[in-house]
Amino acid sequence: MDKKRLRRYNRMILAILSIILLSSVVTFAEGEGNVYIIPLEGEVGPAMEQFVAGSVSTALEDPDTQGIIFTIDTYGGRVDSAENISGMIIDIPVKTASFVTPRAISAGVLLTISADYVTMAPGSNIGSAETIPDTEKALSAWTGELRSVAQEKGRDPELVAAMADKRIAIQDVVEEGELLNLTAAEALHLELSDYTARGISEVLAVMELSNANTVELEISRAVRIAQVLTSSLVAPLLLSLGMIGLIVEVMTAGFGVGGTMSLIAFSLYFGGSILAGNTGMAVILVFLAAIALLLIEAMAPGFGIAGLGGLVLIIVSVVMASSTTGVAVVSLVVAFLMSIIALILIIKHAPKSSYFDRLTLGIKMTSDSGYISTERREDLVGKKGIVTSYLRPSGTVEVDGERIDAVSEGIYLEAGTNVQVIRMEGRRIVVKKMD
């Protein structure tokens, strides 16, 4: 073989080797891909649900995505949101892993076992997944969901169910009457988890994606605010404060503390629902219509169509702002109970409170306007008069031609109603409607 032909042959071999090497490099690079890290922190609820939906969508839109890791740190939350998030995780077409750091309590158990791989940080724990309220129907449905997901992912369904149902006893693991709660070491020993990982790099190794690039997603400030405002504790409290403030405002003259408290509470309640993605601006329009009807009713007491319509629209707006009808019912029941208690306290103590007196009197009642002092007017007890302005429960009555500041016994009295002075409470004149 001459030198010219030999050089040509060597160049051909070198070209072939270069192509093979380049192909290997490209294949290796493609094999690395990206792994997205999605944090599941705080209360499990509508806000977390919307965050997970958006984050998973972002990850799957990336053609280089090879896997998703969910870092879990939660004391639990709502069952409906946990079930929805679990469904999203199960349906992900790429590899998924959960990394408990440092806790997966209650609803967090379902999120953890929904992934293909379960890993836990040293010192972390998982369990205590009992429902609240602990009714037979709710517990049965919840444990059924836990068992189903555990079986689908190859986990011990009885072990997972024991975290929610204290009636389940497992020899050498948990006794009857106790909820199962496992440390990272115990979960690994019982094969509930696949690995005790000290960081994301070890989780990637478990997923066989050690060479992948990681993309960390962060929970936005708006989502964190929405988590707080839509939580199972704060949302009913805001609704209750809104209704109590509305009651106080209707019962007092002018826009004051009650109206301000109601406006702030309702704004936070509906604002949180909008941020969490439960509803849109339509709910605000419905609520404003409810307030308008209640104001009309306040200007013409004697509970009628306007008042009833206002209450109905408030209920409708709350249902619209809730993720489920069940959640709306719970929030409304809590709010109405607290409002009733507040109303009873107002009726009982307001006439004796100097602070309430400052809230109810929006104008100065001077002698130039025809008013007279009510200091110890014992001479008026037993006398009859007529209401000259709505008593809600404070207002004015006319007795023997004199306009006097007075209060009713906690009920609305329209202008023109015949009343009788029944007693003095300090400097307050208390009247009742005459039959």
From TrEMBL:
One example of a Gene Ontology biological process annotation: proteolysis
Pfam families assigned: NfeD, NfeD1b_N, NfeD_membrane
GO CC entries: plasma membrane
Domain NfeD-like C-terminal: 378-433
Protease is among the record's keywords: yes
Keywords, alphabetical: Hydrolase, Membrane, Protease, Transmembrane, Transmembrane helix
Domain NfeD integral membrane, residue spans: 234-348
Keyword Transmembrane helix: yes
Gene3D superfamilies named among the record's database cross-references: 2-enoyl-CoA Hydratase, Chain A, domain 1, Nucleic acid-binding proteins
InterPro entries tied to this protein: ClpP/crotonase-like_dom_sf (IPR029045), Membrane_assoc_protease (IPR052165), NA-bd_OB-fold (IPR012340), NfeD-like_C (IPR002810), NfeD1b_N (IPR056738), NfeD_membrane (IPR056739)
Compartment(s): Membrane
One GO MF term: peptidase activity
Transmembrane segments: 228-248, 255-272, 278-296, 303-321, 327-347
Membrane topology: Multi-pass membrane protein
Residues of the NfeD1b N-terminal domain: 34-214
Listed PANTHER family: INNER MEMBRANE PROTEIN YBBJ
Protein name as it appears in the record: Membrane-bound serine protease (ClpP class)
Organism: Tindallia californiensis
Lineage, opening ranks: Bacteria, Bacillati, Bacillota, Clostridia, Peptostreptococcales
